[in-house]
Design brief:
Layout: E1 2-3, H1 10-24, H2 31-48, E2 54-60, E3 63-70, H3 89-97, E4 100-105, E5 111-118, E6 150-159, H4 160-182, H5 192-203, H6 206-221, E7 226-234, H7 236-256, H8 267-288, H9 299-330, H10 336-351, E8 355-361, E9 368-374, H11 378-385, H12 394-401, E10 405-407, H13 410-416, H14 420-423, E11 429-437, E12 440-449, H15 457-494, E13 505-512, E14 521-528, E15 534-541, H16 545-565, H17 569-583, E16 589-596, E17 602-608, E18 614-617, E19 620-623, E20 628-629, E21 642-645, E22 651-655, H18 667-677, H19 686-694, E23 707-714
Parallel strand pairs: 17-20
Antiparallel strand pairs: 1-2, 2-3, 3-5, 4-5, 6-7, 8-9, 8-12, 10-11, 11-12, 13-23, 14-15, 15-16, 16-17, 17-21, 18-19, 18-22, 22-23
Helix pairs in contact: 1-2, 2-3, 4-5, 4-6, 4-8, 5-7, 7-8, 8-9, 9-10, 9-15, 10-15, 15-16, 16-17
Length: 719
Amino acid sequence: MFRLAETPEAVTAARRFVVERATANGAEALSADAAMVAAELLANARQHGLPPVVVRTHAEPGLVRIEVQDANPHPPIRPTPSLSNMTGRGIVLVEAVASDWGTRREPGGGKTVWAELRSDHRVPHAQRTVSVDDDPTTGWPDDADEAEPRFTIVLGDVPTELLIEAKAHIDNLVREFTLAAAGEPAGVAVPKHLAELIETVVHGFAEARTAIKRQALAAASRGEVRTRLTLQLPVSAAETGEAYLAALDEADGYARAGRLLTLETPPEHRLFRRWYVEAVITQLRQAAAGLLPSPVVPFEQRLLDEVRRLSIAQLDSDRAARLQRVTAALVRATTPEDVAAVVVSQGVAVLGASGGSLLVLSEDGEHLAVPGAVGYGEDLVSQLREELPSAQLPAATALRTGEPVWLESPEDFDAAFSELRTFEPQSAALCAVPLMVAGTPVGALRFSFETPKLFDEDERTFVLALAAQTAQTLHRAEIFEAERQAALDLQRELLPEEIPTIPGWDIAAHYSPADGQEVGGDFYDVIALSDGRVAAVVGDVMGRGVRAAAAMARIRSTIRAYVLDDPDPSRVAEKLDYYFAELELGQFVTVIYFLVLPESDFVRVVNAGHLPPVLVTAWGSELVDTSVGLPFGVGGDTRAVSEVALPPGAALVAITDGLVERRGEDMDEGMDRVLRAVSERTYRHAHDILTDIVGSSPAGSGHDDDVTVVVLQRRESTR
């Protein structure tokens, strides 16, 4: 006899015990098969049985008998073949290899599963002593536990295939949890919470689970497509059932997180599980209280109720998802045209409308503007643009009164708006809802339908929610445009009105704000000093909008003051570092600063995190390798001053990243494009260089950031 210890190595040791006994007693030829049979019986005992587990082996020449005893009184179940079920194959293997096998109930409790292997013959299948489940509820005749009264639970008919699949999934989970508990590394304990979860899933509610499995397999063996479920359970099963449901829900969380090999429970299995366990819990507690059990709602009815609930939830979810998509798209909308492109197209798609449009008050306040329309012909759009706010038409009425208009049939058209049938003859239903901001109408949304339409509550709610989002976005777009224009005006006011005329030099500059975006922080300056030197600066303040424009104004004015005091590049950089450190501006600024000496062939350059300048000569163009320091605002830095040779006719060009950055394109590609634009001709004027560089951007591509370019060209006649 060999008693299994509660260690991962115990099964291996027990299998070795069986092989050694077979070999020592003259049955060496059967030892390999005996090892396999022992392994399967032991695995079943560890997974489905209860400790203690004991192995007994009798061997003699030509015969090996293996007995595995555990404390679980229920016999093993031989499942139907399945490719998805990872359990149950052990008994099938034992049956295939052994000459005979069977089960025996032990008088003192528990059971023994035995198998015999013979070298001379096998018992014919019909004569084997495999036990038959006389009582499909328990697996053993007269299996009642007299210590606790039991009650009969009748759950009714359930599809047999569903039962088998659901139980196979749970068996897979039980198998994995059993292996996790038994296969832990020596000296490393399973965490307490996980150990409790494993215990509940493996052993909690096991009696009911096993009984259902037996009944399903018995029905399947008889070819019955439905199984009538009847259980005999004690009241204590109600409490274990609740714990079992909670544990399986938590196990599904492990599966979703990829912490288990077993997949998450399929939804139909989860619904069945909740249905039968909750019914068992309810009936057991009613029976214990002396009450007549409530009728169990048939599983198909529970399934239909769940489908109905999910359908309603899906409709709510779809509507919320549509509004969420609209909200996400409107985040990027900065003009009424942007708003119309999102809202009208989404509204037409969701409602199944034949057309729709957004209308807002025009700048003159006497007509309605149409920023966008979908599905309307040019004639109708033109008529909408001519619509007056006082017109007796749906959109104008909604805007004027602040109340939605719902027209569900041509008869509604005639009763409410007599002009509408000639205005829009192809439509048979229409809705128009006002766009309200702080109680004031600012526009209207209208949708048309070619057939009569009854607007249900969900559709009306959706259209009104869409209108509320539209109104808020239009209001935000109006504020955005006002701020953008203010920042743009501020920036243009602060940029040089004209470039100073400097003997021996031709200087040109360009600035343009980002297309349809907030104004950035680009700036430039060209300063003619009294001693003939020339200072030029190009910078880019991090950020956008009024804040960036205001920061640009302060920084540009500060740089000009420092240059007028002492234009030496290193001194200007040093003072700017001090300025940022003392005031803690919280802004990052890249700057490239040129100091031109009138009688020299060199230009002195300081680069604080800016793009390298471009050198344009009669031989082509190239990037100038200057020493690049940190941007201002990052921290103090010792910035080296570079000297760039600039022969007569050559030019230095400073640019900002708005010229060379494009979505989906590497900045190096943009820089190469600039170099190619000025590499194949000789330039006599700085303005021509400026034109080619600014024009190097792809036609019609627009730019997402400000663009600034300054060209310093040394004239041929300088010396």
